[in-house]
Amino acid sequence: MSGASGKPALRLGIAGLGTVGVGVLQLLRDNAAAITARAGRPIEVVAVSARDRTRDRGVDLAGLRWHDDAAALAGDDGIDVVLELIGGAEGTARTLVESALSRGRDVVTANKALLALHGAHLARIARESGAALLFEASVAGGIPAIKLVREGLAADRLLRVGGILNGTCNYILTTMRDTGRDFDDVLSEAQALGYAEADPSTDVDGWDAAHKLAILAGLAFGQPVAFDGLHVDGIRAIQACDQHFARELGYRIKLLGTARRTGDDAIEAWMRPCFVPKNAPIAHVDGVFNAVVTEGAFSGPMLIEGRGAGAGPTASAVVADVIDLARGTALPVWGVAPKAEIACAPRSALGGEYYLRVIVRDRPGVVADIAAALRDAGVSLRALSQHDAAREPGGTVPLALVTHHTTEAAMISVISALEALESVVGTPLLLKIETV
Ligand SMILES: NC(=O)C1=CN([C@@H]2O[C@H](COP(=O)(O)OP(=O)(O)OC[C@H]3O[C@@H](n4cnc5c(N)ncnc54)[C@H](OP(=O)(O)O)[C@@H]3O)[C@@H](O)[C@H]2O)C=CC1
Ligand SMILES: N[C@@H](CCO)C(=O)O
Questions:
Q1: pTM, to two decimals
Q2: pLDDT tens per residue across span 121-160
Q3: Which residues are the signal sequence here (predicted)?
Q4: Ligand 1 pocket check for 18: Cβ under 6 Å
């Protein structure tokens, strides 16, 4: 088939017919005329694959070739572009993408784990074969984060990228803040509402957001980031008392990612819950919303907020990539010719102001012991607060400490010293204070 332009249709093969795959089919059908006009040619789905052929997916699959083995889409010569919408850094998704790229077939994917862990390798395959690999949907769903960093800011020297990159965590932290409820309780609600997976660890332990941060950092700094050096903390340790202290001290708690240039060939990158000043724009990105933050030497600071997940927003990003391919626009994976991976600074090299929450047995001398641990590590205190209403029947009570600027190495040594004290219960919680 060819369109009014006389150009042949771009033929798609879709692997994965879940939330995103079905969303793409629906978007391509519902918005076909506008998409054809923008792409300059028709876009046609010709083949699909998923695990269960018999499942009713609420979309009409009549006339589409079905592949039981998704990896076979890579060798289907009736396809111009493979859409990998299965997920996972290994297994069928990886095999399919590698195989399609090495045959010179263009690939569009929403798979952040695959890009974060194997992006350098995939970029090499794509470069050798001349295939394009596009992944707009892999970061922050419907927000055009990749286009912002790789194209919109292509002329700039980016100093920092990051943001709130996981809607599940942002929903949980926002609900904990607004209701005073505990993490486990709100997580169960998020699962019931379909925001969090039955196994929520990829989201709540910070990995999903860290994958997205690694991709943004790779684009911002023009070379893939060695993912195993990225410092990742999730939100499981946040308690209702931490939300209380945040409010009292003038902050909000956000799972925040930052990758920052620290030298010509050096970056720091971390994904962790942080205190952010309550008046900062990012403090008001709430619920399931995501925000992408950039800071350029020329463009200055920027924040874009939007929906980071769901069928519609994610499909919009996937199809935008398809339109680019239909127009003949495709850039190198990391925006420049492939380079070696860049390492992140170790955690001990990080620094800043910190919030430290300690559960203590409330008796004379406890604060003196804590002050001694801070003194011994050379850490200066800015504020101290006790949450008396949260006193447990056994006499334990949460204490919050806010430090002046110090090193993370010093805070790690403070925590070790505190854990050795008989008057300290459990593991203290350390959160970075980030002024974004
Ligand atoms: N959901 C979202 O909001 C977002 C998702 N993404 C990413 O998009 C991708 C897809 O996510 P999502 O749609 O939510 O996932 P789903 O779990 O909803 O769907 C996954 C699909 O992949 C199919 N599948 C699984 N294993 C295989 C296999 N071995 N061979 C063929 N098909 C297989 C499943 O088949 P079957 O249906 O038969 O079981 C299912 O149709 C992931 O990389 C995800 O991280 C990115 C941004 C947002
Ligand atoms: N699970 C992710 C969406 C997929 O990227 C989130 O909660 O933001």
A1: 0.96
A2: 999 999 999 999 999 999 999 999 999 999 999 999 999 9
A3: none
A4: yes
